[in-house]
């Protein structure tokens, strides 16, 4: 299909090698297993696969056809056309990790700019060149804390209001480390408060406290006391943040967070059924030699001209091998580029505007929805960003099934991951939604719950 | 050629993008959380496009030229892949939609699982790992959990040949194992005696890259796996070099227990300047329930009128989630497209031509460069990038000089077991003409080394920049557009 | 929107110019007309226009959703993904006419290659850098003939089987020239044959004879005698060709045509509701100094290196001004690039294959359709390429209206442009259609005519 | 840097693309029409992509840098335009579909007609012309037909100022008119005396470019038009320079009878390396029925529940069809998008900023280059590219030297009425920083001309090629990859 060899060329090449047939190239492969018959459909031409892909894709419902109130870690934002215009340039997407700086300045400078943008966004000192996604970045934060304390502090405290899939990922990552305990995220007792609970658990065994901001329920919580107490006990604090929210909210750096991680998907990356997304990983300066993943640094070339290189590579696994603290060896290069282009296009004013629009529209939606009979806000006193929890008069699944007739994808069913939250829907609203869309949602909910 | 940074291009007050005005009543922002606007650059759309277009011109890429970077499988990325993943039906679906509304996505993932199983000979595949190293971590954690479930917690030792990929040791230690390196024998195979002496009750497993980073197929692979199994260990296969085996050998057939697959190498999804990758993991039947999830399954077989109904499940003894959602779906779409277009014959053709190209190029290059393991290679080969008669010239100099000839350098100084290694992987999508041109450049450079070594040691001469000061980069750490004063 | 000026910059610029306000820049514009109020909707943001465009586009039925049997000058072929990957590169589409060869070698070499491909395709000696479309290229052929005879031969003979819109375009172009008569394309009398009619009309007043190959009805006609007779009387002959057909059919050059023109849309250019397409214009060598439009030629630079330039520019209107024979000053650059990439990707074997598939599928369709009761081939004895005329038992409009329910766009209603061809449908079949699609069409026609 | 041609890259037997095998019974090809396969190149997809990617790198483009090519309005082409025209709902519609099935397309075209009418002040617009010159031809043919219909066939004379675009004379003669040039006065306006002396019963019309190619607005435009009208002639406006007038003046308001609009200049559709353009034509009420068609109209106004129903018509006295189908629809989509995004305020902002940029740059450049018409300009200005004290240096040398500074040269040697003309049009999308950098380069070049004129006369020094031998190109005519022997 994409092999260019003509029969004549194959002959010539075999003659140079000194073999009679291409089969002879594989003499070292055990004969009984050599050249298996693969039970796969015969290859399709481009015309055929294009038609088939169209058919498969058409079997999905999309956020362009439906009004979608799903968030819970992935958000339906508008992506300026300029972003994909850059991402679809072969010079970027068909290059590899910039090992050779002389012919990789494009990628290197773009990532350097990404790092700068991330530090500005988060108020942190240092950003790496990115991780796989928000969940793995969060797990790497726990990993960093483990190694920071040379394995001596085994307790990782995680708030229950951290994205459940992130918490699962932390647990998976921690299984490789000896006797690490991940907790703090058990269901709250009636009347118990998350912050108080965490405060009560922080001690000198605690390596890190991980909180989310805004939290998984969309709430904007002041973690000042958590940070203070953690630091008092020498523990680290990681914020899991939503990058759009930082357009209008005080950043993790301002809370004196040690680590701030998040998923960069809202920064110009399509929903794409969950990936590829972008793991943002930023730290205070003191952890620069401890964070995993690539770092791009500025230097000069032999003529003294400004140039960029991968730096502090001595931390990485191909040099340190078994002594390195993480095995990550790529970053999420193209996605980091997407975020850099997105933030550059929106700029200072555009980014503030999108954050504010999300906030305003979500608040309008909350206001309208909570007026419906049988509906109420689960956390009526908590400030929130662009997502909020709605208590509804029947199961979320049932409501969502009915909403499909209205070309609406309802919010996330919290009972899937929080058994204690039956009949509670996590509703996300972005700048893509108009007042009419929200009003339609309200009207549809009124209808389906009235029946 | 120095391109300003986006912050240097920024002008206070410039606006490149505007959103619609709010159409809802205004709500006050929460007290105590206010911030000034983030200090982002202020640029026009033209500023941004021109900046990143010009940056792109500073990159070498597969679309622009030959990229024989060993072990990275820089093959051509078909353009239909890019169209495929951008279809709104794929790109505009939210991962938490009801499964009734994403049957297209689930069907595609199910097929891809099945196909990778068939291609590799493994029983079950999970598509969730985000990259090769991420898949490796899955493999190591599965080995760990498997032994724990069998109450064999004394199995703490992972054997790693010195010809393995660099990530393997890091992965093992991240998973809490003790790493024991295994030497290679004089043919580049795993040294069987060394292996034997490590086959004891502390053996957790072996991480075997085959073909290894010398580009050589381990001639004793069946025996090696047998020995590990007999000792109660598991064998992890590093799938980074799978391109050479497509349609040639199914690793599952020879007894590998676990393997990851680099979709961005073997299955032509683009490398993206360092990601996103995708690293699905396949396992043998006995390990199927340890896989990370979610995995796609058929919930209802359907009938003549109704297609099967697909859903997701978490394996029973799963090591757990490796990331949010279901893997790099956009990348999976590209790999699906690629496999569907190739079919069994096309896949074998890839393996055959990848190996043919490597051997042809090796044959030509070895006339001027010392080839330490001189036997038929698989998809890549490693030569020494130095000559005794020109001690001042190193592998790095040859690499940099290749840039002047329009080629991306091979992988340098890896594997560590070859002195001044140059690791060359041409891939199957390159033509004989390109290989000939590369071989001619290598020959010319060998001659230049004798006649005018400065051409090499001062190279590159025609790249956007000259060699960089990496010591300064690490010492004066400047990691963003302005160095924080605290550094 | 896309103006980068900050208020401060505007101040500084005005100060340099020595004006107080931007309004002062327009003092020379008559005051009573200055700064009109435009009654237009307020500007939309990118987010809004993107949504609106999606809505507008959704109000159309597309050849992806429907099986379409429409051709008649625009054809639904598969376009390899590689074509748009190249066309969407800013270096190509945001460049202009390559006036400055030192910084335009990309465009120049691509057009040079296009010219080469067109001469190979047509068997002609010379291709220009392209015209607007097939219709204008055909009109420029008549224009060339007029000037070739220095205005002394006034008769332009055009076959009725030339695309009706092309014939209209010729007539429009000819209204600028003194006393030119365009004819030959009147309806044929019963029993009259097009070739014989043309042969009877060729005389020493004839400047050019224009025929189509395959003709508008899809027929492959041997024009040997027409060419012979025309040349006998010193007249020129132009072939209007379909480029896909030339993948398997003897080219115009082999018929000794003087000019061969056609629309390049089938060569990798989307249907796009009729444009932009590509006017292919090729001639015998002797007309090289007479053809309108750009030409790219090979030369060397000061170092003797191969280079490409626009050449024979002395023919063009900006130099010859009123003495030039055409006012065309651009070519259809990006579309010529599309054709060059398309033919390069398909290559020798792929292009033959697509032509053959069109031919085979059209013949299968004709075979099946003509078996339907009440249906018959209008020209049962004529060989045809991928289009044919079907006589049907009711009006084409009526049938096509009913076919929409089957998600089928029926063939072209010939009565729209050929009043003598009531109840005759021009059916086009391309490689994109499967046997199943054709069978569905047959079955649908059987149903709708059975009612 | 020399890139091989596709034929030099071709290898016999190589295949880059395959279609599905035929699924229908085979029919024999017609006898007597057989041909061998066309001699097309044989390449892989990688060959093709790499070739054209590398060719693209040899181009200067707006996305890559400043492109101040006078009269070409090389403004930024917003990326949303490209997304717009590629929406399958647009790109996959056949022009002969039933109008019921393309109401989206017709709505868009109707709106665009209405908007261009409103922006320009004309009564009716036809979107069919394919480019500016094509629109000009429409204009000239309308003038001709109008006079014929009024039995004034003696009106054979078209007046064209010497500051008009180069296509105007060619268009007029293509339409059978006699061209009479009109001189400019010392302020760059049409010489009123010369005009007056030509206002007789043979006057068919005047083709006026305003602002003209000096970038100057004709201060007597109302009077000029009045004189022509009084003499029974029509006034054609060349809309190539409309960018300067957006929201500033509606040409229809001051009495122009006909005008074409270059969507690829004023309305940001990309130039495509020389096309496709799009050149809609607007006319006053009395000429509406002469327009070429088809034109979109409302067939049924609709009501509150139903949108209007759109269709196509051919004007009664139409000059006829100018091409197949309905104009460059894909280009129209982009112009629609651009106008919709700007609205009345945004459009005026374009005009204002285009003129501001030109005047600012003119002010800076005129310190070192002679400006023959020193008054406020509109969107562009023309200086002399030579100095008395450096007679060896010409406008072309300055242009070529600008390439070394990373800029595309201005238009050279046009208009003809300025000695060694350099015609500079910055457009509104360029920033003050870019203008300053260009002005600095112009200043540096003026100094280099005195100090080291060879830097100019041998320029460019850093482009992919050096200056070309254009005489050889015209003499040895090589117009395809192999020169036919007959040449």
TrEMBL record, chains A, C:
Catalyses: N(6)-[(R)-lipoyl]-L-lysyl-[glycine-cleavage complex H protein] + glycine + H(+) = N(6)-[(R)-S(8)-aminomethyldihydrolipoyl]-L-lysyl-[glycine-cleavage complex H protein] + CO2
Determine the domain of life of the protein's source. Answer: Bacteria
Extract the GO molecular function terms from the UniProt entry. Answer: glycine dehydrogenase (decarboxylating) activity
One Pfam family assigned to this protein is: GDC-P
| EC class | oxidoreductase
Q: What is its EC number?
A: 1.4.4.2
Record keyword NADP present: no
A GO BP term here is: nucleoside metabolic process
Record note on quaternary structure: The glycine cleavage system is composed of four proteins: P, T, L and H. In this organism, the P 'protein' is a heterodimer of two subunits.
This chain's function reads:
The glycine cleavage system catalyzes the degradation of glycine. The P protein binds the alpha-amino group of glycine through its pyridoxal phosphate cofactor; CO(2) is released and the remaining methylamine moiety is then transferred to the lipoamide cofactor of the H protein.
For this entry, the protein name equals Probable glycine dehydrogenase (decarboxylating) subunit 1
Source species, please?
Answer: Candidatus Brevifilum fermentans
| Lineage of origin | Bacteria, Bacillati, Chloroflexota, Anaerolineae, Anaerolineales
TrEMBL record, chains B, D:
What InterPro entries does the record point to? GcvPB, GDC-P_C, GDC_P, PyrdxlP-dep_Trfase, PyrdxlP-dep_Trfase_major, PyrdxlP-dep_Trfase_small
Its Enzyme Commission number(s) read: 1.4.4.2
Catalytic activity reported: N(6)-[(R)-lipoyl]-L-lysyl-[glycine-cleavage complex H protein] + glycine + H(+) = N(6)-[(R)-S(8)-aminomethyldihydrolipoyl]-L-lysyl-[glycine-cleavage complex H protein] + CO2
Going by the record, the broad EC class of this enzyme is oxidoreductase
Residues annotated as domain Glycine dehydrogenase C-terminal: 353-451
Q: Which SUPFAM superfamilies match?
A: PLP-dependent transferases (SSF53383)
Quick check: keyword Oxidoreductase in the entry?
A: yes
Q: What's in the keyword line of the UniProt record?
A: Oxidoreductase, Pyridoxal phosphate
Any one Pfam family match given in the protein's UniProt record, by short name: GcvP2_C
The yes or no answer to whether the keyword Oxidoreductase is present is yes
Cellular component GO terms held in the UniProt record: cytosol; glycine cleavage complex
Q: What positions are modified (N6-(pyridoxal phosphate)lysine)? A: 265
**What's an example Gene Ontology biological process for this entry?**
glycine decarboxylation via glycine cleavage system
What this protein needs as a cofactor is: pyridoxal 5'-phosphate
- Could you cite one Gene Ontology molecular function of this protein? pyridoxal phosphate binding
Description of how the protein assembles with itself and partners: The glycine cleavage system is composed of four proteins: P, T, L and H. In this organism, the P 'protein' is a heterodimer of two subunits.
PANTHER family linked:
GLYCINE DEHYDROGENASE (DECARBOXYLATING), MITOCHONDRIAL (PTHR11773:SF1), GLYCINE DEHYDROGENASE, DECARBOXYLATING (PTHR11773)
Its function? The glycine cleavage system catalyzes the degradation of glycine. The P protein binds the alpha-amino group of glycine through its pyridoxal phosphate cofactor; CO(2) is released and the remaining methylamine moiety is then transferred to the lipoamide cofactor of the H protein.
Family in the record: Belongs to the GcvP family. C-terminal subunit subfamily.
This chain belongs to the protein called Probable glycine dehydrogenase (decarboxylating) subunit 2
């Amino acid at each position: 299909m994409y092999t260019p060899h003509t029969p004549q060329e194959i002959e010539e090449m075999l003659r140079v090698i000194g073999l009679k047939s291409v089969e002879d190239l594989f003499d070292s492969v055990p004969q009984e297993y050599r050249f298996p018959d693969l039970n796969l459909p015969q290859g399709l031409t481009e015309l055929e696969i294009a038609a088939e892909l169209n058919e498969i894709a058409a079997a999905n419902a999309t956020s362009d056809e439906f009004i979608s109130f799903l968030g819970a870690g992935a958000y339906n934002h508008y992506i300026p056309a300029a972003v994909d215009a850059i991402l679809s340039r072969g010079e970027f997407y068909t290059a590899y990790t910039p090992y050779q700086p002389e012919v990789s300045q494009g990628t290197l400078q773009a990532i350097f700019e990404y790092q700068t943008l991330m530090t500005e966004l988060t108020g942190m000192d240092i950003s790496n060149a990115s991780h796989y996604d928000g969940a793995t970045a969060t797990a790497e934060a726990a990993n960093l804390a483990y190694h920071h304390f040379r394995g001596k502090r085994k307790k990782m405290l995680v708030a229950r209001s951290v994205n459940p899939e992130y918490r699962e990922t932390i647990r998976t990552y921690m299984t490789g480390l000896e006797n690490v305990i991940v907790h703090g995220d058990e269901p709250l007792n009636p009347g118990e408060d998350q912050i108080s609970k965490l405060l009560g658990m922080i001690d000198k065994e605690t390596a890190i406290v991980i909180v989310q901001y805004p939290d998984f329920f969309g709430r904007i919580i002041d973690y000042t006391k958590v940070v203070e107490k953690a630091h008092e006990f020498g523990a680290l604090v990681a914020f899991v943040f939503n990058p759009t929210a930082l357009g209008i909210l005080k950043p993790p750096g301002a809370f004196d967070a040690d680590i701030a991680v998040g998923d960069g998907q809202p920064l110009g990356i399509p929903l794409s059924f969950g990936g590829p997304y972008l793991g943002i990983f930023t730290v205070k300066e003191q952890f620069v030699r401890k964070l995993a993943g690539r770092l791009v640094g500025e230097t000069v070339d032999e003529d003294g001209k400004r140039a960029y290189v991968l730096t502090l590579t001595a931390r990485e696994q191909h040099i340190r091998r078994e002594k390195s603290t993480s095995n990550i060896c790529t970053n999420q290069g193209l996605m980091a580029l997407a975020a850099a282009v997105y933030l550059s296009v929106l700029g200072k004013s555009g980014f503030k505007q999108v954050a504010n629009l999300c906030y305003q529209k979500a608040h309008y939606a909350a206001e309208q929805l909570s007026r419906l009979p049988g509906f109420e806000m689960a956390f009526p006193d908590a400030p929130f960003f662009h997502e909020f929890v709605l208590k509804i008069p029947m199961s979320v699944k049932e409501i969502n099934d009915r909403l499909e007739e209205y070309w609406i994808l309802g919010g996330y069913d919290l009972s899937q991951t929080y058994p204690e939250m039956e009949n509670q829907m996590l509703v996300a609203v972005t700048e893509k939604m108009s007042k009419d869309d929200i009003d339609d949602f309200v009207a549809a909910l009124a209808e389906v719950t009235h029946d | 050629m120095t391109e300003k940074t986006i912050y240097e291009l920024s002008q206070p007050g410039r606006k490149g993008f505007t959103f619609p005005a709010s159409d809802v009543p205004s709500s006050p922002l929460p007290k105590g959380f206010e911030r000034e606007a983030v200090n982002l650059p202020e640029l026009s759309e033209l500023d941004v496009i021109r900046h990143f277009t010009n940056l792109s011109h500073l990159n070498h890429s597969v679309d622009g030229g030959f990229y024989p970077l060993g072990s990275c499988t820089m093959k051509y990325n078909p353009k239909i892949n890019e169209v495929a993943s951008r279809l709104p039906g794929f790109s505009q679906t939210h991962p938490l939609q009801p499964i009734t509304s994403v049957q297209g996505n689930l069907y595609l993932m199910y097929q891809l699982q099945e196909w990778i199983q068939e291609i590799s000979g493994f029983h079950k595949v999970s598509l969730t790992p985000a990259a090769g190293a991420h898949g490796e971590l899955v493999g190591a954690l599965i080995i760990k959990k498997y032994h724990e479930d069998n109450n064999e917690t004394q199995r703490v030792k992972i054997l790693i040949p010195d010809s393995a990929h660099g990530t393997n040791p890091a992965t093992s230690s991240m998973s809490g194992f003790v790493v024991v390196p295994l030497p290679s024998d004089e043919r580049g195979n795993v040294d069987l005696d060394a292996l034997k002496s490590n086959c004891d009750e502390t053996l957790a497993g072996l991480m075997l890259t085959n073909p290894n980073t010398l580009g050589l197929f381990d001639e004793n692979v069946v025996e090696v796996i047998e020995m590990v199994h007999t000792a109660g260990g598991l064998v992890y296969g590093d799938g980074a070099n799978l391109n050479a085996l497509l349609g040639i050998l199914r690793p599952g057939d020879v007894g590998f227990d676990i393997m990851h697959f680099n979709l961005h190498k073997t299955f032509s999804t683009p490398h993206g300047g360092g990601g996103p990758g995708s690293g699905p993991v396949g396992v043998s039947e006995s390990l199927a329930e340890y896989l990370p999830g979610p995995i796609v399954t058929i919930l209802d077989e359907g009938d003549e009128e109704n297609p099967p109904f697909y859903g997701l499940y978490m394996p029973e003894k799963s090591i757990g989630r490796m990331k949010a959602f279901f893997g790099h779906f956009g990348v999976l779409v590209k790999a699906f497209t690629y496999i569907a277009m190739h079919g069994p014959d096309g896949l074998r053709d890839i393996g055959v031509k990848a190996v043919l190209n490597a051997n042809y190029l090796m044959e030509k290059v070895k006339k001027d460069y010392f080839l330490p393991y001189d036997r038929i290679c698989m998809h890549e080969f490693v030569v020494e990038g130095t000559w005794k008669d020109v001690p001042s010239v190193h592998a790095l100099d040859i690499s940099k000089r290749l840039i002047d000839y329009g080629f991306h350098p091979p992988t340098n100084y890896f594997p560590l077991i070859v002195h001044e290694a140059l690791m060359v992987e041409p891939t199957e999508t390159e033509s004989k003409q390109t290989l000939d041109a590369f071989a001619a450049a290598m020959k010319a450079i060998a001659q230049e080394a004798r006649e005018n070594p400065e051409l090499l040691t001062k190279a590159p001469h025609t790249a956007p920049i000259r060699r960089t000061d990496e010591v300064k980069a690490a010492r004066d750490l400047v990691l963003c557009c302005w160095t924080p004063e605290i550094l």
